[in-house]
């Protein structure tokens, strides 16, 4: 379930050029065993998992189904899931009660062809403005186009907020297929159809034990549908709550996953994970990715080029300039075609935005959460009001409520987490990981997310309900220590509750300025990054940031993470060469 590239064949010259670029780029990504298929008006390039995993391509006579990502249908994976999808009626409106995972699916049956994404469109499918091509690879799509321009809003969103959000990409000419669309592909071209993917819009009151039982069964169904197909599973364990809940859900289904933790020996995550493993009698593999290998300056350009293609241009952070440790860790998680699990999106059970329990406008949410910038870091091209207004518009579009400026019910604000934040922030990771092997992200399942939205805020604060759920599934695991200073078999302590409360009570105008205030008080350089020194970086980018200088004032920035992401953008601009215009 790895990679798809589709190009309209009506223009042979464009199609041939695009396919040649895609074949080469898929090879640079690490794909092999490519297969090609002619469909009415379109040409398909499909690649299976780079390392290994369930079947992702099925042909039956003149019919075909191909997926990229991690896909289940009727609780099955691989060929049985593909067969079930191929037989599913009404592909213009897929039956989401039968589908799970994060994926892109292409189905050709009885002469008609449809493409669609998972419930939240977390697995990324890129397309150009004319819908002449669709691709799970950003670089393949970009290389197929003769001209590219940087999208200013996305440039600032990536630099300041880690990732572009919504359907935008870093290039103006490329967009992401939204969760509300199904594409029908025909001789005449591509036609977008609207699909409804509802989520709850109000809190559901019910007895606590009944609620715990409901959530437990929903999580179990998702995990069961993935884990049952694998003999080998890798699961993370840190000092927090989300990874522990995933591990508990796997253990409850009879799995005995290989447990791992990232960090140095003295980090809280490693210390806690080892304590838990010792107490429960399982080993915990530790990997310090920063110490994976030493890279000499002369070898740095080759390492960065490899990272660039493996990350499909832009990672969510400055990992473009890392030493290969992330790739080694990812490959080990999928060794032998294993399933890798993630605790990502676990905040579906919590008050992720730290907002009070009352109606809130999209504008307030944008100001409170997405205003992580210091205006002086940017050039005169940046307008903070326009930047935040554009984010407000994206929030409302994700909710299907364009133009609404009035306060929204709190449950609608909770929808923003899976519909926008998880889709964008974890979508990149999900899309990259899914190239190598199957990836279980149970908290982004739409049924799990829907139940999380229905939780009263009093149960979300300080992870109270999530800890109760963990304790119900695996009391022994819940009783172990955590990085919060308390275990999860007991209510959160006063320090934990106060830390969240102190954020919730801050007014939006203060939260909007919090980042700027912290920057004025002290630099946000963090730990020294050896590979971010001039003797390394000068070999891969211009240290005066020639391409990014029209967006930023790099010499003013004392936040290392922001600078790393701007350096990623600078490197991308250099790799696009003459194809990229102002």
Please describe what this structure looks like.
The strands form 4 sheets. The chain has a 6-stranded antiparallel sheet, covered by helices on one side. Helix 10 packs across helix 11 (384-398). The protein folds into 3 domains: 3-194, Glutamine Phosphoribosylpyrophosphate, subunit 1, domain 1 (4-Layer Sandwich), CATH 3.60.20.10; 208-350 and 428-490, HUPs (Rossmann fold, 3-Layer(aba) Sandwich); 522-577, no CATH class. It starts with a strand and ends with a strand. The protein has helices spanning 12-29, 78-87, 138-144, 152-161, 208-227, 242-252, 268-280, 300-310, 325-333, 362-369, 384-398, 410-436, 446-453, 457-460, 464-473, 475-478, 494-504, 508-521, 534-537, 560-576, and strands at 3-8, 35-39, 42-47, 57-60, 63-73, 99-109, 112-117, 126-128, 133-135, 148-149, 174-176, 181-186, 189-194, 233-236, 258-262, 284-287, 339-341, 439-440, 580-581. The chain contains 20 helices and 19 strands. The chain is globular, with a radius of gyration of 23 Å. The mean pLDDT is 93.
Distance between the termini: 36 Å
CATH top-level class of the largest domain: Alpha Beta
- Report the total helices: 20
Low-confidence stretches: none
Strand fraction: 15-25%
Rg (CA only):
23 Å
**Shape estimate:** globular
Strand order of the largest sheet: 2-3-1-9-8-11
Let me know the number of strands: 19
The biggest beta sheet is recorded as: 6 strands, antiparallel
Helix content: 25-40%
CATH architecture of the largest domain: 3-Layer(aba) Sandwich
The class by helix and strand makeup works out as alpha/beta
What is the CATH topology descriptor of the largest domain? Rossmann fold
Total domains, how many? 3
Q: Kindly report the name of the CATH homologous superfamily of the largest domain.
A: HUPs
Q: What average pLDDT do the residues reach?
A: 93
């Amino acid at each position: 379930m790895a990679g798809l590239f589709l190009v309209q064949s009506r223009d042979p010259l464009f199609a041939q050029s695009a396919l040649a670029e895609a074949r080469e780029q898929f090879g640079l990504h690490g794909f092999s065993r490519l297969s090609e298929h002619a469909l009415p008006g379109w040409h398909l390039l499909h690649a299976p998992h780079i390392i290994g995993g369930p079947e992702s391509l099925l042909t039956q006579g003149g019919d075909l189904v191909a997926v990229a990502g991690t896909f289940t249908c009727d609780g099955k994976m691989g060929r049985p899931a593909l067969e079930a999808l191929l037989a599913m009626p009404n592909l213009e409106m897929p039956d989401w009660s039968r589908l799970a995972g994060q994926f892109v699916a292409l189905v050709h049956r009885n002469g008609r062809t449809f493409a669609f994404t998972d419930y939240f469109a977390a697995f990324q499918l890129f397309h150009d403005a004319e819908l002449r091509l669709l691709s799970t690879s950003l670089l393949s799509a970009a290389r197929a186009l003769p001209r590219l321009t940087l999208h200013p809003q996305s440039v600032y969103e990536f630099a300041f907020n880690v990732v572009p959000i919504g359907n935008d990409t870093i290039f103006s000419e490329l967009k992401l297929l939204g969760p509300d669309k199904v594409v029908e592909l025909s001789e005449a071209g591509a036609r977008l159809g609207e699909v409804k993917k509802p989520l709850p819009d109000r809190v559901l009151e019910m007895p606590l034990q009944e609620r715990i039982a409901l959530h437990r069964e929903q999580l179990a169904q998702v995990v069961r549908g993935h884990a049952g197909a694998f003999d080998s599973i890798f699961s993370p364990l840190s000092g927090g709550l989300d990874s522990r809940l995933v591990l508990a859900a796997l253990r409850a289904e009879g799995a005995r996953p290989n447990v791992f933790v990232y960090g140095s020996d003295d980090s809280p995550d490693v210390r806690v994970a080892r304590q838990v493993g010792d107490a429960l009698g399982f080993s915990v593999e530790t990997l310090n990715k920063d110490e994976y290998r030493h890279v000499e300056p002369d070898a740095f350009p080759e390492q960065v080029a490899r990272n660039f293609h493996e990350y499909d241009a832009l990672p969510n952070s400055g990992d473009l300039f890392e030493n290969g440790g992330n790739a080694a860790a990812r490959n080990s998680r999928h060794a032998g075609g294993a399933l890798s699990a993630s605790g990502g999106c676990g905040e579906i059970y919590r008050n992720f935005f730290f907002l009070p329990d009352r109606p809130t406008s999209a504008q307030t949410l944008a100001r409170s959460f997405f205003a992580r910038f210091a205006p002086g870091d940017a050039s005169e091209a940046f307008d903070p009001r326009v930047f935040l207004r554009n984010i407000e518009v994206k929030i409302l579009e994700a909710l299907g409520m364009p133009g609404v400026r009035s306060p929204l019910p709190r449950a609608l604000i909770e929808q923003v987490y899976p519909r926008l934040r998880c889709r964008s922030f974890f979508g990149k990771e999900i899309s990259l990981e899914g190239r190598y092997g199957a990836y279980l992200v149970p908290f982004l399942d739409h049924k799990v997310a829907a139940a999380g939205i229905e939780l009263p805020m009093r149960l979300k604060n300080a992870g109270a309900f999530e800890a109760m759920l963990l304790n119900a599934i695996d009391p022994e695991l819940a009783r172990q220590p955590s990085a919060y200073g308390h275990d999860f078999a007991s209510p959160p302590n006063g320090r934990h509750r106060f830390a969240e409360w102190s954020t919730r009570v801050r007014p939006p105008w203060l939260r909007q300025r919090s980042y700027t205030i912290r920057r004025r008080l002290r630099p946000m350089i963090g730990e020294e990054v050896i590979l971010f020194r001039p003797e390394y970086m000068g070999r891969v980018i211009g240290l005066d940031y020639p391409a990014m200088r029209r967006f930023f004032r790099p010499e003013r920035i004392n936040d290392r993470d922001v600078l790393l992401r701007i350096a990623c953008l600078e490197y991308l601009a250099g790799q696009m060469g003459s194809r990229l215009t102002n």
